[in-house]
Write a structure and sequence with these properties.
With 207 residues, this protein is mainly β. The protein has one helix spanning 69-72, and strands at 12-15, 20-22, 28-30, 40-46, 51-57, 87-88, 92-95, 104-108, 110-111, 118-124, 135-137, 143-146, 157-166, 171-183. The strands form five sheets. Strands 7-14-13-10 form a four-stranded mixed sheet, with no helix packed on it. Residues 76-84 have low confidence and may be disordered. It is a lipid-anchor; GPI-anchor. It comes from Cirrhinus molitorella. Pfam families: Cadherin (PF00028), Cadherin_pro (PF08758). Residues 94-192 form the Cadherin domain.
Length: 207
């Protein structure tokens, strides 16, 4: 449940996973049956007083049937199947005009098949391409960080790639797309074109 604090009524929520939403009672609810665990999503809440982000992890997948259709039909050893991708890269969000200190953690990449001699690698615009060094990834933990304040009016969206390699640089997993969206802030001051404005209000006018 995402509960408004006093003075923060009317918060609008955006969920990064389209299979979930925040209902009128401020509950995070699923639009479909939840069959996967370990997926990470983000809930963005914003109004005139607040702009904040929550990270949500889906835990505890329901137990599966002891027999799949493939096993019932005796096809387990006859037909190859595609294994589930082990590199999980959730979309990430960064408010513009953040203040120091930097770097700031913005999310985490998860690999279910990570070995001790494997490392994470981040590439693309904002990493190893201009503007270089905006984003970095911890080679061992997969934590992604932003190194400086961003300007949405300059760049509103970053499209990067994450992969894992062994210590020699040989590709192990990926690359998988990592999308980073810059959240807009009301940082444009109002501009008055005239030096003076005049108006009239009738005496006794209702509130």
């Amino acid at each position: 449940v995402f509960d408004d604090c006093a003075g923060n009524e009317g918060v609008e929520f955006e969920v990064s996973n389209p299979d979930f939403l925040i209902d009128d009672n401020l509950n995070l609810v699923a639009r479909r049956d939840v069959i996967d665990s370990g997926d990470v999503m983000f809930v963005h809440g914003v109004n005139v007083h607040v702009d904040d982000m929550a990270q949500v992890t889906i835990m505890g997948a329901p137990s599966r049937s002891p027999q799949t259709l493939r096993e019932i039909l005796g096809l387990s050893d006859m037909m190859p199947y595609r294994s589930k991708r082990s590199l999980l890269v959730p979309p990430m969000f960064v408010p513009e005009n953040q203040r120091a200190p930097f770097p700031r953690l913005i999310g985490k990449v998860i690999s279910s098949d990570m070995k001790e001699d494997h490392i994470f690698r981040l590439t693309g615009r904002g990493a190893d391409q201009d503007p270089k060094g905006v984003f970095s990834i911890n080679r061992l933990t997969g934590e992604v960080a932003v190194s400086r304040a961003l300007d949405r009016e300059a760049i509103a969206y970053y499209h990067l790639q994450v992969s894992t390699t062994d210590l020699s640089g040989k590709l192990v997993e990926g690359p998988v797309d990592l999308d980073v969206s810059v959240i807009d802030q009301n940082d444009n001051r109002p501009v008055f074109k005239e030096p003076r404005y005049s108006g009239e209000v009738l005496e006794g006018s209702p509130t």
